[in-house]
Amino acid sequence: MYIEKRKSRDTIKYYLVHSYREKDKIEKIRKYLGSNLSKKKLEEAKRNAEEKINQILEEISTKIFLFSLTKKQVEALNKLSDKINIVHLSEGEWRNFTKDFVYNTNAIEGSTITEEEVPEILHKKRAENEEETETKGVALAVNYIRKTKEDLTLNLLLKLHKFCFKGSKPFAGKFRKVNVVIRNSFGQIINAGVPKEELKDYLNDFIEWYKEKKDKFKPLTLAAILHNQFEHIHPFQDGNGRVGRLLLNFILIRNKYPPINIMLEDRIEYYQMLQKYSKNDDLKSTLKFLIKQYKKTLKEVITKKKK
């Protein structure tokens, strides 16, 4: 904010001005302070104007971790959420969703368990290897987010990780103490999690942001933001993709929205979507991708029901 002076004959008018960017345009908020003010009166008027400008900024700008969205941008993102057709799944449809989700979310991370093998593994009393353990673990996590009454906390994230990897990874249910780099199948770096020294601060900010801002967004928008920021932070040594996709659905289910299954066949587009968020703060691409995935999810669940 800065003070702007306008001279007219023997009069000097003072204004407090704040500039901000909305899309590709620079906008200004200007508050009149008075004319021919003494230094003391100018400071007093400036303080009062700052409070009023800050109130306006609170209404037009919402902080999204390291960037901000204007009120119009938030409204546009929330409007995209309306493209989700709210359908509540039956018990049978939930079983179908769980099998599909378990297969796809593990396969995205390299599991060799086939789609046909998943139902058989889920009916086994005991897993026979690491991949079967994680198959059963993800199914337990899906059941948990569907039924739990607890809200989003760091403890919930640890709990979901432990569900997925207890018995397969020694660091199940623990935040990482090492730095991580995420590469694609060509060896190219697609993301580097936040430095281990900053992880605690990022995670605390993550939960605080959720508590303060969750009511500003429709469920799909909120789920998209939290999923993308979680993946950007990458708080676990391994398993961030699976926990992030569970988190996405936790937010949706908690807000009476249907779950979304991200398909293995669309994983390249999924990775591109995450990169657009990390590099360009692009949330619109995420919402469009999730809407497309939801339509596929619903079609898959209903088709299996008919069979």
Quick tags:
single chain; 307 residues; alpha+beta; Fic-like fold; 2 domains; 3-stranded antiparallel sheet; two-stranded antiparallel sheet
Count of DSSP-assigned helices? 11
How does the helix and strand content classify structurally? Answer: alpha+beta
Biggest sheet statistics: 3 strands, antiparallel
Q: Percent of residues in beta strands?
A: 5-15%
The CATH homologous superfamily of the largest domain is termed Fido-like domain
**Could you give the order of the helices and strands?**
EEEHEEHHHHHEEHHHHH
What name does the CATH topology of the largest domain carry? Fic-like fold
Helix content: 55-70%
Shape: elongated
Based on the structure given, which CATH architecture of the largest domain is correct? Orthogonal Bundle
- The number of strands is 7
- How far apart lie the N and C ends? 64 Å
Q: What is the spatial order of strands in the main beta sheet?
A: 1-2-3
Tally of separate domains? 2
Q: Give the low-pLDDT segments.
A: none
- Mean model confidence by pLDDT: 90
Rounded to the nearest angstrom, the radius of gyration is 24 Å
CATH top-level class of the largest domain = Mainly Alpha
Q: Could you walk me through the main structural features you see in this protein, from its secondary elements to its overall organization?
A:
The protein is of the alpha+beta class and 307 residues long. It has 2 domains: 2-55, no CATH class; 74-306, Fido-like domain (Fic-like fold, Orthogonal Bundle), CATH 1.10.3290. It has 11 helices and 7 strands. It has helices at 39-60, 71-81, 91-108, 117-123, 130-147, 154-165, 199-213, 219-233, 240-254, 267-280, 284-306; strands spanning 2-8, 11-22, 25-35, 61-64, 67-70, 181-183, 189-192. The strands form 3 sheets. It has a 3-stranded antiparallel sheet with strand order 1-2-3. It has a two-stranded antiparallel sheet with strand order 4-5. A two-stranded antiparallel sheet has the order 6-7. A hairpin with a 2-residue loop joins strand 4 (61-64) and strand 5. Helix 3 (91-108) crosses helix 5, helix 5 packs parallel to helix 9 (240-254) and helix 8 (219-233) packs antiparallel against helix 9.
